[in-house]
Amino acid sequence: MPTDPRQVRSTTPAGRTPVEVAAVGETMVVLCPAPGEPLEHAERVAVSVGGAESNVAGYLARLGHQVAWVSRVGDDPFGRAVVRHVAAAGVRVDQVVVDPAAPTGLYLKDPGPEGTAVHYYRAGSAASRMDPGTLADPGLSGARVLHLSGITPALSASCRALVEHAVTARPLAGSLVSFDVNHRARLWSAEQAAPVLRDLADRCDLVFVGQDEAQTLWGTTDPAAVRRLLPTPETVVVKDGAVGATALRHDAEPVFVPAPRVTVVEPVGAGDAFAAGYLAGLLRDLDPVRRLRLGHLMAAQALTSSGDNAPVPPWAWFEELLAAPVEAWSPLDLTATPTPV
């Protein structure tokens, strides 16, 4: 692997650079009024784009990897906006299907005195019509990683069948299957989701889960207990917010890496950034400690940015911190260290 991930990789005989990661899931248009303004009184809204899997794809692409986002959008202005937004991050979108019979999903943010409520309009969306055939595109052949999340099986029966097919039949031969539990209470209750997400996660190779999710779904925050619930994956990464993250692998001692201190601007999207950082470390064959560090450093970028897609620093900045001795990493405080862009 090149030292600098921005170096050009070899291309296929057909002239196309092979995909390293395929990220599958729905991305929606987001409408948001001015900060603090209730939606019912808003005269104007800002339009943006949001989706967990495409966030992971975008961060990986900006880290220099060849990534394809696999999904469906409606044949409408919102669908074109979503595809344009994802492609602008350097992500390949040629595996995105434009569906003329279903709309692009939409959600609206509604600020209020007790926090921001979210209203989803995604039932019957184009993405909810994904099915096991979604992964049949030969352009995905050879991908090193297939990344999925627990959001997709909650969208529809066909989407659940897609994820079950992906983790059971392994249609992308040789790909490591990565799964972010990503429980969304607005899509399904913990009682509905718990057995399904545990079963799907346990069929994967790499699983990301937050301690808060583990508590909600399975009644535990203990990383070792989560590992016992998910005995099959090669690696289970349990995240504990601002405290740190633990990687639990087969036949190896658990590895814990504390999170650096940051000033949080917006917590949304930090989990996606962490997953992208960890996967980038895996693709670069970094050791377990450096994979977790890269996850934390990417999460820090998301936490300190107001947008869903934070800027990514030069690779040299990451290299220096990834190589730092333990005594320098543990007290790392990024609030006092400006991040280069």
Please tag this protein with its features.
single chain, 341 residues, alpha/beta, UDP-N-acetylmuramoyl-L-alanine:D-glutamate ligase, eight-stranded mixed β-sheet, four-stranded mixed β-sheet, 10 helices, 14 strands, globular, disordered N terminus, kinase, PfkB_dom, kinase activity
Q: Can you characterise this structure?
A:
One of its GO terms (molecular function) is kinase activity. This protein has 341 residues and is of the alpha/beta class. The chain has a domain of 157 residues: UDP-N-acetylmuramoyl-L-alanine:D-glutamate ligase (3-Layer(aba) Sandwich). Helix content is 30%, strand content 20%. An eight-stranded mixed sheet has the order 4-1-9-10-11-12-13-14, sandwiched between helices. Strands 3-2-7-8 form a four-stranded mixed sheet. The chain is globular and about 55 Å long. The two termini are 23 Å apart. The relative contact order is 0.11.
Short description:
Residues 21-313 form the Carbohydrate kinase PfkB domain. The protein has 341 residues and is α/β, with parallel strands linked by helices. The chain has helices spanning 52-62, 77-88, 157-168, 190-201, 211-218, 223-229, 270-283, 288-303, 315-322, 326-329, and strands at 21-24, 28-32, 46-50, 67-70, 72-74, 97-99, 106-112, 115-121, 145-149, 176-180, 206-210, 235-240, 244-249, 255-258.
User: Radius of gyration from the CA trace?
Assistant: 19 Å
* CATH C-level of the domain at 17-173: Alpha Beta
Q: Using the 3D structure, state the CATH architecture of the domain at 17-173.
A: 3-Layer(aba) Sandwich
Strand order of the largest sheet: 4-1-9-10-11-12-13-14
Cα distance spanning the termini: 23 Å
Task: Please work out how many helical segments DSSP would assign.
Answer: 10
